[in-house]
Amino acid sequence: MGSFMQEMTRPGNGPILRCESVGLTFGSVNALSNMSFDVKKGEILSIIGPNGAGKTSVINTITGFYRPTRGQIYFKDRIISGLPPHKVCAQGISRTFQNIELFSGLTVLENLLAARHIYLKSNILSCSLYYGFAQREEIEARRIVEDIIDFLEMEAIRKQEVGVLPYGQRKRVELGRALALEPEVILLDEPTAGMNVEEKEDMVRFVLDVNEERGTTIVLIEHDMDIVMDISDRIIVFDFGVKIAEGLPEEIKANKRVVKAYLGEK
């Protein structure tokens, strides 16, 4: 039954990503309650809320790290609820992590190439019998990765081990790894956390370029409210696992419930 539900499609030209009445429970704790929202193709949608509000749980549930207790998640009108992370990636969704999750002993180039593994069809047998096919796969992977290195201005560090890089550059590499999956949607979990002002400006510029030049839909979790208000098309606010507001940046700024829960009353 589960496999049938995963393969089931829904008609219509709706949003690129949709959560319908999604719940997530850990024992007696409701991490997410009746979560429903849409992500429109090509937009930057920010998710905000105080610590413990359930923001990262949203990303983990969409990307398959958590299995929702109830409700459904759709990507391009196709149910992806319950799919493992690698299959969610293969659908066209990638992510970055709040805590950097890179191979610290590998170079920048090697980290980006490693992200391409889900698209490689060659194995030992096919490599020995059809060397040309395997070679074409590697050439294509390198072309995509080199384009990302140029796009994110990482040429100077392409052969450096990630573990020795400054924090801001490692964050940039993680964005590059997410791009190497050629996603239609990227979920960014606090991409500017821990950065200085200059590093934040660079990261925001790259996020905007990914959205505008590559046409990639962005779902952003971010604590810096100046960034959120500047670059978001829409904002969703969570508090204790419940969506309490949704709207344009100016609407969220003026929402008294949001001010009380997150921005702080004056």
Structure write-up:
- This protein has eleven helices and ten strands.
- By secondary structure, the protein is of the alpha/beta class.
- The relative contact order is 0.17.
- The strands form two sheets. The chain has a six-stranded mixed beta sheet, with helices on both faces.
- It has a domain of 130 residues: Rossmann fold.
- The chain is globular, with a radius of gyration of 19 Å.
- The N terminus is likely disordered.
- Poorly predicted residue ranges: 1-13, 124-129
Helix content: 25-40%
What's the shape?
globular
Mean pLDDT: 86
Counting H and I runs of at least 4 residues, what is the number of helices?
11
Look at the helices and sheets and give the structural class.
alpha/beta
The largest pleated sheet is described as: 6 strands, mixed
Annotated CATH architecture of the domain at 1-84 and 221-266: 3-Layer(aba) Sandwich
**What is the element string, with H for helices and E for strands?**
HEEEHEEHEHHHHEHEHEEHH
Number of β-strand runs: 10
| Radius of gyration, taken over Cα atoms and rounded to an integer in Å | 19 Å
The top-level CATH class of the domain at 1-84 and 221-266 is Alpha Beta
Brief descriptors of the model:
single chain, 266 residues, alpha/beta, Rossmann fold, 6-stranded mixed sheet, 4-stranded antiparallel sheet, 11 helices, 10 strands, 40% helix
Task: Set down the secondary structure blueprint.
Elements lengths: L1 H6 L9 E10 L2 E11 L4 E5 L6 H8 L7 E6 L2 E2 L5 H7 L1 E3 L12 H7 L9 H6 L1 H21 L15 H14 L4 E5 L7 H17 L3 E5 L3 H7 L2 E6 L2 E6 L1 H5 L2 H8 L3
Parallel strand pairs: 3-8, 3-9, 6-7, 7-8
Antiparallel strand pairs: 1-2, 1-4, 4-5, 9-10
Helix pairs in contact: 4-7
